[in-house]
Amino acid sequence: MNFFEEESDSDNEAYEGLVESRHISNTTFDDPLICFNLHHEQNLVAAGLVTGKIKVIQFSKDEQKEVAEFNYHKESCRSVLFSQKENILYTGSKDRSICVYDLENFSQALFIENAHDDAINCLYEFGENRLISGDDAGIIKIWDLRQEKAIKTIEENEDYITALKTDSAETTLFATSGDGSLTSYNLLKNELITVSEIYDDDLLSMEIIKDESVLLCGTMSGAMLIFKWGFFGDKTDIFSGHKQAITSIIPFDKDSVITGSEDGFIRLIGIYPNKFYGIIGQQNEAIDNLEFSHDKGYLVSSSSYGELQYFDALFLFDENEDENENENEKSTMGIKNMNQEQPKKRKKKKKKRNKNKNKKNNFIGKNQNNFFDKL
């Protein structure tokens, strides 16, 4: 299967049509979209809006249906996160609060007001009843949700926390920051491992690949910093080629990742050997975030203009491809060679706003005080 055909400079319109052919549908919002997260078992997406509202949407190829709306934050929702362990949703806001929602009863289970002194920018779940939060001032807090309090505060960064992640054993926490550093922290010993060299570049995104032997960081300039495992004090390599900021990195396989960039392109790249394999999608605006659905059937991207875009991702995992084919070529994935000249962006089209005026009521349950007794 060859998704992108060879084309001349005058054939950009045909190329754009091929990009459209993998695009399934959109979800638009009346207010700017700030963040989203996909459920680990169902086709559900949680979207955080600039108003502070959180919308939970069930999606398929044929339709998107709003199933819940929460409205507890006073300012914009900066982070939404489905739990990997329980049927709950975490949210963090510019108003410095953290909220936990029970998705079985569509109710608020926990609200931590003034959780930070500054706006909360990202959340990460680990262990049992543990949540990690990072704010605009570079402060990281580890929360015990049973005790409803922070049990550890990490103050190693001087600017906003952009991403949080642990290794698979959940023993090491990594944080990227707008101050240009990668911080690693031992969660078992509750002690700092190292703060990397300060780079003259905001670190915006990260991912762990190659059986946890390599950590990647995407930057504002478009460079990708490569850290070998155990040597987090300084990069060991740089992958250049993205012309604008790398805002999102997600794993494709153990040797490859998919990146989202401010130029609107979604790219597949390999690490060691470092290689651009091609473009697998695009949107008109800068990409804020990328995620695969739980079954890898959809690739979902977001922009700050209030829109989610759904792409068919099944072609990337074609089970009928020739097993003997050279893996590095990845030609059966149907992707365009990056050495060819890139197509011009499509003209922006006026967005259609959701005209459905039926408002959802806030789902406030009666048994929220007993929710954490079940955990």
Q: What topology does this entry show?
A:
Elements: H1 12-21, E1 23-28, E2 33-38, E3 44-49, E4 54-59, E5 64-70, E6 77-82, E7 88-93, E8 98-102, E9 107-112, E10 120-126, E11 130-135, E12 140-144, E13 149-154, E14 161-166, E15 172-177, E16 182-186, E17 191-195, E18 203-209, E19 214-219, E20 224-228, E21 237-239, E22 246-253, E23 256-261, E24 265-270, E25 275-282, E26 289-292, E27 298-303, E28 307-312
User: So what's the overall shape?
Assistant: globular
Q: Work out the strand percent.
A: 35-45%
What is the number of helices? 1
Q: In what order do the strands lie side by side in the largest sheet? A: 1-28-27-26
Low-confidence stretches: 1-21, 320-375
Quantity of strands, as a count: 28
Query: What is the ordering of alpha helices and beta strands?
Result: HEEEEEEEEEEEEEEEEEEEEEEEEEEEE
Q: Tell me the distance between the termini.
A: 47 Å
Give average pLDDT, whole number: 84
Largest β sheet strand count, sense and barrel closure? 4 strands, antiparallel
